[in-house]
Design brief:
The protein has 207 residues and is an all-alpha fold. The protein folds into two domains: 126 residues, no CATH class; 60 residues, no CATH class. 70% of the residues lie in helices and 0% in strands. The protein is built from twelve helices and no strands. The longest helix has 33 residues. The radius of gyration is 20 Å and the shape is flat.
């Protein structure tokens, strides 16, 4: 429904879910498009958010040890949930089963709900009149909030929000999202310097 509210057709929305099976990237893409951003900028933001799945894939490739012919197809299902379920299993056989069941069920449900949401959005007309244009950011925040457990993670989130909102009026749509990604290295740099300063005997720290 969010993608349909951003101007995508029913079939474009369905194709997006079929090919880009990662929620954060999809929300970033349709959010940038809804704000008037170009396709390249929107795709760049979505790609950046999807990079974490590559790191999941490195770990899962060792754990699952799937045949080479299967790996390109399994890569489509490398997401947060399949990674968590696979890593929680005691044996490789159970990890493979957990990965397959979780990936298949979520993929089918995700695409089914995408189709239903897109058809619903098409039926009700202009989703902005219903306030549904805010659904994407709201869902993204709901997914993100439980993951912010430490002070450092919260600081990264706050700085990213400040950068994104502060640069929104002066940069093209979609670009503030990319700039906001600099919040993570900036906060980690400050935290690292502080730890080296307060830790006795650390290189460059006070004694």
């Amino acid at each position: 429904m969010t993608s349909a509210g951003s101007g995508l057709t029913v079939w474009q929305s369905c194709a997006l879910s079929l090919l880009v099976f990662t929620g954060a990237s999809q929300f970033a893409l349709v959010g940038a498009l809804a704000a008037g951003g170009g396709a390249v900028t929107a795709a760049a933001g979505a790609l950046f958010l999807g990079v974490r799945n590559a790191f999941y894939g490195l770990r899962l490739s060792q754990l699952l040890a799937l045949p080479r012919a299967v790996r390109p197809f399994a890569a489509q299902w490398v997401i947060d949930e399949t990674t968590a379920v696979s890593l929680a299993q005691p044996t490789r056989r159970n990890a493979r089963m957990g990965f397959a069941v979780t990936g298949l069920s979520l993929y089918l449900l995700w695409n089914l709900t995408t189709l239903l949401g897109a058809l619903g959005a098409e039926a009700i007309g202009d989703t902005a009149l219903w306030g549904l244009d805010a659904a994407g950011p709201a869902v993204f925040l709901a997914l993100l909030a439980p993951m912010l457990r430490t002070t450092t993670e919260r600081a990264v989130a706050v700085l990213a929000v400040l950068l994104g909102l502060g640069l929104l009026p002066v940069l093209p749509a979609g670009v503030p999202v990319l700039v906001a990604a600099l919040a993570a290295p900036a906060v980690l740099y400050v935290v690292g310097r502080r730890e080296r300063t307060v830790r006795p005997g650390a290189p460059g720290g006070t004694r």
